Structure formats: structure tokens, C-alpha cells
Amino acid sequence: MSAPRRHVPVPTAETAPFWEGCRAGELRVQRCRACGAAQFYPRALCAPCGSRELAWERGTGRGTLRSWSIVRRGVNAAYDADGPYVLVLVELEEGPTLMSTLVGVRVGPALDAAEGVAIGAPVEVAFEAWQEGATVPRFRLVRRPEA
Question: How far apart are the first and last CA of the chain?
Fold first, then answer.
């Protein structure tokens, strides 16, 4: 029996520009030329209007934390060293919501304890290169200066 492995993204025609951007340190989003809507996840049609006139743009990499949860047990043993970790929904400045994980925070023993994590907190992208060859977008809290 082989050892468990990470689920590594496999680029498709629709997702390749996104993953290329990640490798280049850019968080890219699709924008519809017909209606102006930004969307994520990458797809062949604009979700709001159905147009095929989609273009890729470099996003700011900034967003707002909309939801979060602590994951204490990975989906398989390949993720055991990552845990516990904070799973997040981030609303990007461009509009779409992206699911990822939060880096740079300590997770406490209580079920809902993660240092400084709160709904509405500002976050920014922090790319992580995996040994498996993928570069994935993670997020970190943007610390506000003490007054």
C-alpha cells in the first residue's frame, strides 16, 4: 500500500492561467469583458451573464476574512504535519470569495481558539510552494499598527 499524498492541483484549460499566476506570485482572477463581473473559481463562462468573453487580471491579493474554522485532523496522513490549521473563506477586493488556509497564526487547544482570527479581519495572499510541484495561495492576517 502506497503512502498517502497531497491532492495536487492539475491545471485545465480554464485553470492554467490561475496556477501560472500562483507560480509567478500573482493572485489572478477572471473578469468578464461583457458585464465586468470578477469570478472565482475559473470557468469557461461568466457566472452572472453567461458570456465567454473572459480575461485574466492580476488581483491585489488582499481581502477580508468572511468565515473560518479550525481543522485539527487532515484529510489524510500527508496533511498531518500541517495541523491544526485554520481553513478560511476570503472575500477578495475584486469581489469573488476564495477558500484557502491561514498561515502565521497559532491555534490553541480550545475548539475555536486561533490567535487574532476574526470575521472581517483584513488578509493578504502568501504563496506556498509545495514539494509536489504546485504553488498554492494561502493567506495571512494583515496586522494593524498599534495606536
Answer: 56
Q: Measured at the alpha carbon of residue 78, what is the angle toward residues 116 and 110, in degrees to the nearest 5?
A: 30
What's the gap between Cα 9 and its chain centre?
13
pLDDT of residue 68: 93
- pLDDT at site 143: 81
Query: Domain segments of the chain: what residues?
Result: 11-59, 60-147
Q: Which CATH number fits domain 60-147: 1.10.3470, 3.40.50, 3.30.70, 2.40.50?
A: 2.40.50
Q: What's the grid cell of residue 92?
A: 477578495
Helices marked H in the chain — which ranges? 16-23
Question: In the chain, what is the greatest distance between 2 CA atoms, to the nearest angstrom?
Answer: 56
Cell of 108: 490553541
